[in-house]
Specification:
The protein is globular. About 45% of the residues lie in helices and about 15% in strands. Helix 1 (about 1-25) packs across helix 2 (about 30-40) and helix 1 (about 1-25) runs parallel beside helix 4. Helix 5 links the parallel strand 3 (about 145-155) and strand 4 (about 180-185). It has helices at about 1-25, 30-40, 40-60, 65-95, 165-175, 195-210, 230-240, 265-270, 280-285, 295-300, 325-330, 335-340, 360-380, and strands at about 115-125, 130-140, 145-155, 180-185, 215-225, 255, 315-320, 345-350. It has 13 helices and 8 strands.
């Protein structure tokens, strides 16, 4: 019984810490990762807390290890209350904004859309002797008409990550009837910096248009979608196609999930505590600090690329994002309004950076509904 009591206590401590990370900023990168996970698992935390609470009450009824059991029960109760408070705020938001939520879907971690399939990866470019590939997803049911395409750009602070890191989303998008191209690009290091990744995306767009007939893609209906650093790349690539002198036809629209929009501002105003060392990340991407390379920072910032032809934009952001402040969207909005660019902003107050890691979690359920409606609006004829 003593071993059980201590195991129960340890689990209660860990669960309480996870629940607190839903609300409090993490002081360290590893704790931030735990917080990102916890923020999308409130139902699981609440249920586990109730199990630990039940074990504690059983031990108390047996009059065994009373002090340990009381401590375990207290921590489990607090963890459950924190998780339930988070769940309550999510359901209140969903009700106020007319989103349907499914609690049971939150326990689906592996499901892939059965109406979509992944094709063999293709090389779209070669850089310094190394191939750059893209994965292709399409609906299983063949249609006679051409489909709209979505080009997906992964995140990873411009130095990590790889294509199809959110493959469940790619299958979901293909299941909606789109052809999805999820691509690799050159990661930044001591010898590779901006604009190399953007040039790779532009090359991928050219490759997709050149092979459009092969994949039944409508060249005039292409969207970009990116996450985090990939959202910045998607925005820059999309906005550059609308600038005078661009050799690429403008894309129809662009979706940004928690992406930075003003790199100079982010360099000087990192979210505190700065668990990724924003200045180091940005210097690795651009090649130096903004004081030394102001023009490159400006060119890599979507906020400086808005014009009257900028494509419609969708922004999804978490209110508790600890890597990219919501100010990135809020500072962009006045310029979009000035140029009369259609845009939508979905702010999820409870969500952290990377909230869509759980493809069936509450945040993803809402995000999918918003993305689906936006794409239907701008990718139809």
């Amino acid at each position: 019984m003593r071993v059980l009591a201590y195991i129960n206590l340890i689990n209660a401590v860990l669960l309480f810490c996870a629940a607190t990370l839903i609300f409090l900023p993490a002081p360290h990168y590893l704790l931030w990762l735990a917080g990102v996970a916890a923020s999308e698992l409130p139902l699981q935390i609440a249920m586990l807390a109730l199990v630990l609470l039940a074990v504690s009450f059983i031990l108390l009824r047996l009059k065994r290890h009373r002090k340990i059991s009381v401590a375990s029960a207290s921590l489990a109760l607090l963890a459950s209350l924190l998780a339930l408070a988070d769940i309550g705020s999510i359901y209140h938001y969903a009700s106020a904004n007319r989103f349907d939520l499914s609690a049971s879907d939150c326990f689906n971690f592996l499901g892939l859309d059965k109406n979509a399939q992944k094709l063999e990866a293709q090389e779209y470019a070669k850089r310094d002797g190394r191939p750059l590939n893209l994965d292709i997803y399409e609906p299983i049911s063949r249609s006679t008409g051409k489909r709209a395409a979505i080009v997906v750009v992964h995140g990873g602070s411009w130095r990590n990550g790889r294509r199809s890191d959110f493959a469940q989303y790619d299958f979901w998008l293909a299941g909606l009837g789109y052809t999805v191209f999820d691509l690799d690009y050159r990661l930044c290091n001591s010898s590779v910096h901006f604009p190399a990744p953007v040039q790779d995306i532009e090359q991928a767009l050219s490759w997709i248009k050149a092979h459009a007939d092969q994949y039944h893609v409508d060249r005039d209906r292409i969207a970009l979608l990116g996450r985090s650093a990939g959202a910045e790349l998607a925005l820059v690539a999309a906005y550059r196609t609308a600038l005078a002198g661009s050799t690429l036809k403008p894309v129809r629209c662009v979706v940004s999930l928690y992406g930075p929009t003003d790199l100079t501002w982010n360099y000087h105003h990192p979210v505190k505590p700065d668990v990724i060392d924003t200045a180091v990340v940005l210097k690795n991407y651009i090649g130096g600090p903004p004081d030394a390379l102001p023009e490159l920072y400006a060119q890599a910032s979507p906020i400086n690329l808005i014009c009257d032809q900028t494509p419609p934009s969708l922004f999804l952001h978490g209110g508790r994002d600890q890597l990219v402040s919501t100010s990135n969207v809020e500072r962009l909005e006045p310029l979009l309004k000035t140029h009369r660019i259609p845009y939508e902003y979905c702010l999820l107050p409870w969500a952290n950076h990377g909230f869509d890691w759980h493809c069936s979690g509450f945040s993803s359920q809402i995000s999918k509904a918003v993305i689906k409606k936006f794409l239907q609006k701008y990718l139809t004829y």
